[in-house]
Specification:
Largest sheet of chain A: 5 strands, parallel
CATH topology of the largest domain in chain A: Rossmann fold
Distance between the termini of chain A: 37 Å
Radius of gyration of chain A: 23 Å
Largest interface: A-B, 26 and 26 residues
Helix content of chain A: 55-70%
Strand content of chain A: 5-15%
CATH superfamily of the largest domain in chain A: Response regulator
Shape of chain A: elongated
CATH architecture of the largest domain in chain A: 3-Layer(aba) Sandwich
Structural class of chain A: alpha/beta
Order of helices and strands of chain A: EHEHEHEHEHHHHH
Oligomer: homodimer
Number of helices of chain A: 9
Number of strands of chain A: 5
Strand order of the largest sheet of chain A: 2-1-3-4-5
CATH class of the largest domain in chain A: Alpha Beta
Chain lengths: ~200, ~200
DNA sequence: CGCCCTATTGGCCCAAAGTCCAATATCCGT
DNA sequence: ACGGATATTGGACTTTGGGCCAATAGGGCG
């Protein structure tokens, strides 16, 4: 039902690129290929599920730079690095920045397939989690400022009476805002509300 | 106030071991040294804050094996690997398993110090988080089976009436258990209780 | 200027939760 | 068998929270 995942492959060597694409397509995966980081950045759709297979050494933006660029754009797409002449510090840096995997050329077909499938699975979960948060924030955005304030008081476990005192209004009004807030957030209990807030990172530093 | 962090160094080459120890001690860190994985495993105190600096290539248990062994024991101590002849797959595997860092010999003194300090910081945070969870579970363990059941119902947002029906007892009894549970958990609102439960991973599969 | 949204308050009533004091029954271990 | 922990229920009462209907007031907009 959701969009089919696509594997984006970036490698400046046409022969390697074609070979990788053929391998993955043979495994039933949708593939898009790019000969340069710039080319990829221009055509990459952040909303497409899937993963990226990236040669580390490329003219222009290299793989690590592209990883940074994607992170800067807020993309959490899993990245599998490939390298022919990489060294350990390079692989460690890539992994620290969240790379899904870091394989050496010539890459074992099976290793690559496993890594790609795992990355696609990771991406699916990440997207699902993000979608949930987006949904919660969508609901949050429908709250009036007052309702939002009241929500914070509820989340901190305060009684309506206390909230009323702090906001300088009567308890009755708190009840009205509170009821509307619960309605808009689509929750039926404080417990549910707290969990939503935690998931959406409300109250985090 | 807490225990001072200790850097545990494991390397089968006495000269390297002494050199590393000297470097770290000169930086004001407490150090303990071991010439083998076995020796380390026998003397390592999981409750001591700090980190581990580990040579990858060692006779007997190598660094990766020791990492697994520690993980199997439930230790989350950060591990910094050192290697003279390691390869990329090795470093990637170590990082995937949660290594704090993976440095190549000859190691740059400054790189190592930075890595060690970062690892100690990570460990401090991990320990604090674990201590909080342990504290919560300590309180949990004081609940009677019935109180624990009632807690689950409260966490799922059920009314006392509903819980009573499901447990086949009258609402009055639910109130008693609920009040005692809140008391023992040291929380004053459902919101607080839900957050405690989330932190302690209650309700997670 | 009317209309809608937001914020506010009021009253009335009911449901839900919490508090205090007291009592009974079971099971377990000394 | 006695004492303690656990589970259960009762009554009486207070505090909180929620639902429904209604009303006022200010701001923004066509």
């Amino acid at each position: 039902m959701p969009l089919p995942p696509i594997v984006f492959i970036v490698d400046d060597e046409p022969a390697v690129l074609k070979g990788l694409a053929r391998l993955l397509r043979a495994a039933g995966l949708a593939v898009e290929t790019f000969l340069s980081s710039q080319d990829f950045l221009e055509h990459f759709l952040p909303n497409t599920p899937g993963c990226v297979v990236l040669d580390v050494a490329m003219p222009g933006l290299n793989g690590l730079d592209l990883q940074k660029a994607l992170a800067a754009k807020g993309s959490a797409v899993p990245i599998i690095f490939l390298t022919g002449h990489g060294d350990i510090p390079m692989s460690v840096q890539a992994m620290k920045r969240g790379a899904a995997d870091f394989l050496t050329k010539p890459v074992n077909d099976d290793d690559l397939l496993k890594a790609v499938r795992a990355a696609i699975g990771t991406d699916r979960k990440t997207r699902q989690a993000r979608a949930e948060v987006a949904d919660i924030q969508q609901r949050l955005s429908t709250l009036t400022p007052r309702e939002r304030e009241v929500m914070d008081h509820v989340l901190s476990g305060q009684l309506n009476k206390q909230s009323a005192a702090e906001l300088g209004i009567v308890e009755k009004t708190i009840k009205v805002h509170r009821a509307r807030m619960m309605e808009k957030m689509k929750v039926h209990s404080v417990a549910e509300l707290v969990r939503l807030a935690e998931r959406a990172g409300i109250g985090k530093k």
